Amino acid sequence: MKIKEFAVAAILGLSMGSVQANVMEFNGTYASDEDLDLYRFDLLSDGQVKIWSDTLTDGLRSKLTLFRKNEDTGAYEWKSGIGGYEILNATEDRNDNGVTLSGVNEFNVPLKNGWVFNDPDKLGFSDAGGTLNLTIGSYLLVHTGFFDMFLGEIEGRDGTFDEGFLDMWSDFGFEETNSRWSTFEFRTSDAPHAYKLFVDGDVAPVSSVPVPGAVWLFGSALAGLTMTARRKKLAIAG
After folding, report:
1. Which residue ranges form the domains of the chain, and what is each CATH number?
2. How do beta strands 36-43 and 3-5 pair?
3. What is this structure's pTM?
């Protein structure tokens, strides 16, 4: 279970008074199953930050998780339920029949996963993205497969990055090669897929911040506890 770090490929600056609005863009390929692609940046002033991805390939779904560095402890923390660290799928405009006429989401990224123009039965999915209200500090953005979930997020609580992620796809018992998000075969090819990632705001790249290497937590006991908790929640809801 390796961790790969990717440098920001380009920074486009636009002066906005005392605030510098930057768009940091990465272009690359997710090359190995179960890797976490890590991006670190500093937010230089309180305000909105737009973060979104484009997986480029029909059939591929990814996930973004954002952590903020605690300057006292050095840990990257995730906060549940506040909206600031949760990056869900970007939204798209639909008509009264639920059809997306434009075929793109709020960040102008094309919908994928079988999207067909004006077809209510093939609406597709949007890539991950959101506009967040954040405070000054250092942030860690994790880009991974849709079913690779941060442990605290699964359990509905706060937590730190070094608690690790669970491969929920394997937890559900799917181990086929083409079930992995980096090799997803959806009328494309069984090969790693390219993607783009953007961070837009008063941000700057971080040159070097130590990140723990052992961040994946796998084990039948942990997975069993997680699934048991989820089943209890479903039973209560029912």
Report:
1. 3-90+127-237 (2.60.120.380)
2. parallel
3. 0.78
